[in-house]
Every structure is written in structure tokens, then in C-alpha cells.
Design a protein that fits this description.
This protein has about 425 residues and is an alpha+beta fold. The protein folds into 2 domains: about 220 residues, Metalloenzyme, LuxS/M16 peptidase-like (Cytochrome Bc1 Complex, Chain A, domain 1, 2-Layer Sandwich); about 180 residues, Metalloenzyme, LuxS/M16 peptidase-like (Cytochrome Bc1 Complex, Chain A, domain 1), CATH 3.30.830.10. About 45% of the residues lie in helices and about 25% in strands. The protein has 15 helices and 13 strands. The strands form 3 sheets. The protein has a 6-stranded mixed sheet, with helices on both faces. A hairpin with a 2-residue loop joins strand 1 and strand 2.
Length: about 425
């Protein structure tokens, strides 16, 4: 495997991962900008339209027919957030030319489709094609509705709003439903053009061999754009509030949800990750074995580390009468770690668990692209083995110190209406 990274222009970078074992090529283009409540929905729809048509294939049916003719090549768009930034992307995958039955230039055809999607979309007179935009807008609105219907996901989103209030991270990558409904074909196109001009662009190509045509395609496309881009800040640590903030909602749900957000003053991201793993990320964690299994206080109880915000979230599904008991026991289990009550087995299992995840990097082209993008965001390009070596260096003392740096910042509780007294 060979990794390389090249600057193509103002905040435009091309990274390639070459691994001969793959039979497919994978390309993902990310446009990265600050999360904005006013622009998130416009940005998401502006990027979303790109995979439904372009200036050559003007309908979803036409572009799908073309992809099918290229041995079922894929073309998708996505929107996500990482702390205070919004990430808009277009990804594509196709078989390499050597496996084409009749010697077709699959890669050349696919790059032509991608280039037109990115730099010559299906738009006229300053707005996207009406039908292509209608399809995309419906998809985005459906995703927003789906987030509301997924009560655990919604609770985590609301917890972010409480924990990161006043910071970009409080916002959704899709914006609110109200903002999304206001987006027009014109405003979405304007937002996309602005992204091309101002967003940080990170392009990742994973394939069995290099293709110099791809960085040339990217440079050619951006040469027609008046760039005025600045670098985004991928890690923006959130300061703990002076007092614990608590917010709640009521829904027609059978099971209450509770999310506790802790914030840290520690920069020891490796010890904090091991701490999170031992605390609540696994079936052998303290929260799972004690709060869920031993005490039966909740249906699930897990935690996740948000290193880019200097935070850790614990979420659980709980009966109303057990909310206070579950909260107290979660805090008690954290105190156990602060006291240094970490067994050799817990530490060993945590490293093995993380090793298992790291060993899967490189199984697919997309996993390589995601890995090296995340390491770029961290500011330090390292291999999975190098990260594993860092985890293996973590001691109980470092974990204890990391746990002492955690402060309960906020809580979000989703109550069930039917049990309200």
C-alpha cells in the first residue's frame, strides 16, 4: 500500500491510496465548510443534486442507465458533520479497466461523468433543473423526518444542541426542516457555486494503480472557479458550562432516553479513547456490565468519544422511574475509573477491541479513504498500526488522569408522555 498527498491549488488537496489487491477504483470529493444554520440545508441540497443528473445525462434515469452500462458503477452524494464543520461529498466506485470484458475504458467514462456532475451540473439560468432538484429536496426532507423518527438518534442530536449551544456543532448537517423547506433550485445552485469558491476541497482516490488524469481533472475543473478559500478548523474543543444544563422533551414513546455529555480539559486523546472504551463502548464495559446487566437500570447504556469537540456522550434507554438511579450509577462507574479501579483484563480487552476495528481498515477502498481523511482532520497522518501502537502505550495512570479531566456539562432527557404524573 502506498499513500501520497498533493496540493492542487488553494486549499485543494488530492490524496491517493494505491493497493494492488483491489479490483475497483474509488473516488470521493469532499467540500468542507463551517456548519451554518442558515446554509446547511442549501449546501446539502446543492451537493445532493449532483448525483441525480448532469449537463450530459439530464435525468436520473439517464445517469442510472449510464452507470449500469459501466458494470454497475455507483455515484452517490452525502452530507455529514464533524464537530463545527459540514462535510459535503460526492463518491463513486467502478471496476478497473483490466476487468472490462471488451476492453472498455470504464475509468475514462466514469471520470467524464464525475467531472460533469461536479463542474457542469444540470443547471440553467442560475438554478438547478427543476425535476432533479425536486428529487433531491424530497430525499433531504425524508432524511430529516427519519432523524426525528429515530428516537435514539434524535436524542443524541438534541443533546448536541444542549451541549454545544452557541457553537456550530449544535446544528444538523441537513439544517432544520423549516430551513430545508425554504430551499429553492436557485438558492441551492447558488450555495453549491459558493462551496466551489470557498470550501476546503479534499479529494481521495483509492485504486490498484495511479491515474494522473484524476488530479488533472480536478485542477481543470477548479481552474474555472474564482477561489477564495480558507482552511477550516477540524478540532474545536468546547468548554464545560459553569453549571449543568438540562433540557427535556416529551414524545409518544414507550422508553425514555437520557443523554449525558461530559467535556474534558485533557489533550490525551488516546487515553480518553481507551477510557471511553472501558467506560461504555463495548459489551464488556463498566456501563454495560453494571448499569445494564447487573442493576437492570436501562435497556442500553453506551458512550462515544467526540475528540474533535473534547467531549464524551453517554446515552441510555431507561424507564422514567429509573432515570435518577441510572444517572447516579453512570457517575459512580466514572468515579470507579477515577479511583483507578481498572483491571488488567479491562485494559487488555479495550486495546484488543480497538485493534479489531483498526485491522479492518483497508478491507475496502472506502475504508482507506475514510481513514486517511480522519487522520488529516486530526492533523497527523498515521497508519492503523501506528495508532494501535499509541493505544498500547496507554497506562492505567493515564486513563485515570483522563477520567479526572471529565466534567458533566449537560443532560438531555426524552420523557414518555404516557407515564407523566
Amino acid at each position: 500500500m502506498k499513500y501520497s498527498r498533493t496540493q492542487l491549488g488553494s486549499n485543494i488537496a488530492f490524496s491517493s491510496v494505491i493497493d494492488e489487491k483491489f479490483k475497483t477504483s474509488y473516488l470521493t470529493v469532499r467540500l468542507i465548510t463551517k456548519l451554518s444554520p442558515e446554509l446547511s440545508a442549501q449546501n446539502a441540497m446543492g451537493m445532493g443534486v449532483l448525483s441525480s443528473s448532469n449537463s450530459e445525462y439530464r435525468t436520473l434515469a439517464e445517469i442510472n442507465e449510464k452507470l449500469s452500462s459501466l458494470y454497475g458503477a455507483s455515484l452517490t452524494t452525502f452530507a455529514s458533520k464533524r464537530g463545527d464543520v459540514q462535510i459535503l461529498g460526492l463518491s463513486s466506485s467502478w471496476i478497473t479497466n483490466r476487468y472490462a470484458i471488451d476492453g472498455e475504458n470504464i475509468e475514462g467514462d466514469m471520470l467524464s461523468v464525475i467531472e460533469k456532475c461536479l463542474f457542469s451540473p444540470n443547471a440553467e439560468n442560475g438554478e438547478f433543473n427543476a425535476e432533479s432538484f425536486r428529487i433531491t429536496k424530497k430525499e433531504i426532507l425524508d432524511r430529516i423526518d427519519a432523524e426525528l423518527n429515530n428516537k435514539r438518534g434524535y436524542a443524541l442530536a438534541r443533546a448536541s444542541q444542549v451541549a454545544f449551544k452557541g457553537e456550530p456543532a449544535e446544528n444538523s448537517c441537513y439544517g432544520t426542516k423549516e430551513e430545508a423547506e425554504k430551499v429553492t433550485a436557485k438558492s441551492a445552485y447558488s450555495a453549491y457555486r459558493k462551496l466551489l469558491e470557498t470550501a476546503q476541497a479534499e479529494i481521495y482516490y483509492v485504486a490498484p494503480q495511479e491515474n494522473p488524469e484524476i488530479p488533472e481533472m480536478i485542477k481543470r475543473g477548479f481552474s474555472e472557479v474564482q477561489r477564495n478559500s480558507g482552511s477550516v478548523q477540524f478540532r474545536s474543543v468546547s468548554k464545560a458550562k459553569d453549571s449543568i444544563a438540562t433540557e427535556s422533551d416529551e414524545f409518544d414513546v414507550r422508553q425514555c432516553k437520557m443523554v449525558m455529555t461530559f467535556k474534558t480539559t485533557s489533550d490525551d486523546i488516546f487515553a480518553t479513547k481507551i477510557l471511553s472504551t472501558i467506560f461504555g463502548e463495548t459489551p464488556f464495559s463498566k456501563l454495560f456490565l453494571n448499569v445494564r446487566e447487573k442493576m437492570s437500570l436501562c435497556y442500553y447504556c453506551a458512550c462515544r468519544s467526540l475528540s474533535y469537540k473534547g467531549a464524551l456522550m453517554v446515552d441510555c434507554g431507561v424507564e422514567r422511574e429509573n432515570i435518577e438511579k441510572a444517572k447516579n450509577e453512570i457517575l459512580n462507574q466514572l468515579d470507579e475509573i477515577r479511583k483507578g479501579n481498572i483491571s488488567d483484563e479491562e485494559l487488555s480487552n479495550a486495546v484488543l477491541y480497538l485493534d479489531n476495528g483498526l485491522s479492518q481498515v483497508g478491507d475496502t477502498p472506502s475504508s482507506y479513504a475514510s481513514w486517511y481523511f480522519e487522520r488529516f482532520c486530526d492533523g497527523n497522518i498515521r497508519t492503523p498500526q501506528e495508532i494501535l501502537d499509541e493505544y498500547r502505550k496507554v497506562t492505567k495512570e493515564r486513563i485515570t488522569e483522563a477520567s479526572k479531566a471529565l466534567t458533566l456539562d449537560s443532560m438531555y432527557i426524552m420523557y414518555n408522555k404516557e407515564d407523566k404524573e
